[in-house]
Structure formats: structure tokens, C-alpha cells
Amino acid sequence: MKEHFQIKETIVTIVADRASHITRAKESIRHNRAILERFIAFDPFFRSTLEPYVIQENVPEVVKRMILAGNSMGIGPMSAVAGTIAAMAVESMVVAGATFAIVDNGGDIALINDRPVTIGVYAGSSPIKDLAFRLPVHEHITGICTSSGTVGPSISFGMADAAIIFSDDASLADAAATALGNATYVGKEAVEKAFDVVKYVPGINGAVVIQGGYMGMWGSIPGMVRADIDYDCITKG
Question: Which of 69, 70, 105, 102 lies closest to 85, judged by CA?
Fold first, then answer.
């Protein structure tokens, strides 16, 4: 079962075997968005800063995860918002009994899968097309997050068509994808150099960068396969 769901800026695709699991994901998204909005109203700097944020005691869990992920990459906490919201939604689905659950929050994906899953790659105008990752079975929640300087509305200071991170921490994957995208400039050498920002960060399993006609890979990534990528299946507003 698959459902498109939107609440304000959060636009997700939720996939599960049961409608009740999708309902739990939506409840989690509403709940954690409300908590985040209240925190931002209390401290607007949290939303605007592009620098690491000093963590305070007793902050809500969604806020804490975003801060820790952003700080790990030396950037602001909002870099991890989509991956964090997605991960907490999948966690709520698992509590409800799901062994197969995917939440795609605008290209930042958290999932647990009791069967292999194919995740397509969309890199805008890059000539590198029709590729996908074939993810093996995961008995725990994992993340695959993407940032781009040429696709979508998110802030990026680089030129990556797609900067992709694999991590068992979806919050970290989201922030790391942002950092990797920020570090990617034009050309083969620039793509290779970009991986320096993620190579030594604990918890990052692997990374992929697509920039124009160049594609670089680092670390452990799932197998890649050819796939017919349907633009209409991309989670977008």
C-alpha cells in the first residue's frame, strides 16, 4: 500500500503492508512537526542557523536528533529535519508491528524492509539516468538520503545533481547528504574531493555523488541496477 501525504512543507510518500501502519506514520509526522514548530517559535535561530547548534538539556527528541546530526557534520540542525521526521515515522510503524515500512520525505528515506527494495535515483538534468539501488533485507531501520544543488527547493551551496548518503541513522544521513552536496563542485576531481567531508564521520556507511556526467562512490553502497525511473513516483509538491 502506498499513500502520498502532505502537511505544510512536509511532503511524504508512505509505503506499508497495512493501512493501519500508514495511519501510525501520519500520526507521528503530525505529532513531531507540531513539536518542532513549537520549538522554532520559542527559538527561531534554530531554524535559520547554518552552523552547529548548542544542544540544551531536555529538548524534545525530534529536536535533539536534528541537533546531533547537524553538529556531526558541522552544519545547522535543519539539515536533518526530513530524515528525522521520516525515521521517527518508521519507528512508529515498527512499534505497530510493521516489518516493511518506507517513508520518503522528499528524497530523504527511512525504511525497514523484510524483502529487497529497489530505490530509484533522480539526478535532474544529469545524463546519468535510469539507475537504482537494490537494497537487501534490513531487520533494522536504515536511511538513504539525497541532497541536490540543482533539483528541489532545499538550500545547497554546491553543484551536485545528487549527493546520496547511506547510514543506519537517517538523521545523520540527511545532514551528511547536505554536507556532501555543499562540498560538490564541477568536474571529476571535484566529485572525488567532495567525499572528504564524509569519509571520517562515524555512522556513515557509504556515499554517491552525481555531478553532470560524473558519478563517484565511496564506502559500502547497495548494488546498482538499471531501472525505468518514473518521474511521477518522485515525492514532490
Answer: 105
